[in-house]
Known about the structure:
Blueprint: E1 5-8, H1 12-22, E2 28-31, H2 36-41, E3 47-49, H3 50-58, H4 63-68, E4 70-72, E5 74-79, E6 82-87, H5 88-92, E7 96-98, H6 101-115, E8 118-120, E9 124-129, E10 137-142, E11 145-150, E12 153-156, H7 164-167, E13 174-189, E14 199-202, E15 208-214, E16 217-224, H8 235-245, H9 248-253, E17 259-273, E18 276-277, E19 280-282, E20 288-289, H10 297-318, H11 322-349, H12 357-372, H13 374-385
Parallel strand pairs: 1-2, 1-12, 2-8, 5-14, 12-19
Antiparallel strand pairs: 3-7, 4-7, 5-6, 9-10, 10-11, 13-16, 13-17, 14-15, 15-16, 17-20, 18-19
The chain binds 8-demethyl-8-dimethylamino-flavin-adenine-dinucleotide (RFL) and P-hydroxybenzoic acid.
Amino acid sequence: MRTQVAIIGGGPSGLLLGQLLHNEGIDTVILEAKTRDYVLGRIRAGVLEAGMVEMLNRAGVGARCAKEGLVHDGTYIAAAGRSFRIDFKELTGKVVTVYGQTEVTRDLYDAREACGAATIHEAEGVQIHGADTDAPYITYVKDGAEQRLDCDFIAGCDGFHGVSRKTIPASILREYEKVYPFGWLGILSETAPVSDELIYANNERGFALCSMRNPQLSRHYVQCPLTDKVADWSDERFWAELKARIPADAAARLETGPSIEKSIAPLRSFVAEPMRWGRLFLAGDAAHIVPPTGAKGLNLAASDIHYLHDALSRHYKDKDGQGIEEYSARALARVWKAERFSWWMTTTLHRFPDQSEFDQRMQEAELDYLESSRAAQTALAENYVGLPF
Ligand code: RFL
Ligand code: PHB
């Protein structure tokens, strides 16, 4: 089999790239290790930057998001018994849209199926060959038989645990990592959201976040030790802990109910450089991870895809290779700023097990400053709604 761009990974990065390229007549094949249902079953991101919504529109898959997505003009920050609001719209003129990653992925799969582009699910043992030559190819096993896919370029959109990044020789790849000493326990419940906007809470018992998917579906998180297991957290224990960490008025309004999904995610910051090796490009979680506190992971995947689509489109349409040469540097310039913001949000809002009294006072001063300074609020808002790309 032969294609122009072989895409490894059928998550949001790979699907979005596939759709944008398809719309320009560039042929792609997506190789995905899991089934479609498995991919759609992962509950992850919920907040889309305006730039990402625009990309969904450009890809022709934005209709349902425009209809069902919840536009949020701001967010609440709660700490030390008080809560204040950051007004994104007033401070930056921009808003975010609450629309689940599951829905984004579903819309992209539907569009891909409708246009007949090839997606090979349950592709096992994917291996990249000749990425630093002019004739790269991929081998994989499907239904017990070894297959070969020849291509012009390979897009490594296979997430943090994929094969693409690992294919780049250690002598070329540089990795930067920070692992945080806690995780997030998240639950999804068929209950009304506690507030019209998200609440990020810094509390002495640990961080908490009240988010949502739609007017009848809530998504909540509490910071927990990395040693905790999902089985340690009954629904009752979760709701009691969340109530203890959010402002009293929100706790009084909180509607509780059975969880329909419950999982623990570790928090890490990670960047791999460069994001291109020959004809192999890394995009999304394959190249970088942010802790979820700034809601940046999915949005960063989208900006990578913006740069990668631009590079490939210029190559095929204009015979211009400059986008390809510049892809890694362009993408990384934005990645590092989102890393900084996500690290800052995480550091400002969580309780660290080894937090000294000095660290504690710094956190309090940071939050006081944020509450009282328009400049500080603008800096948060500008990053939260998304830096330009
Ligand atoms: P994905 O979604 O991991 O998709 C990669 C795909 O590649 C497949 N794969 C392979 N396929 C073939 N061969 C192999 N060897 C393969 N290895 C892997 C996988 O099966 C998978 O289908 O990466 P992608 O597309 O780059 O998308 C990235 C986003 O999923 C991620 O950044 C976000 O979910 C992060 N994130 C958030 N991002 C936001 O922008 N806003 C948020 O509010 C937000 N909240 C979150 C989050 C992530 C979370 N978790 C659990 C990590 C909240 C949480 C709790
Ligand atoms: C979510 O709704 O899942 C969500 C929202 C905001 C974040 C992280 C996750 O910062």
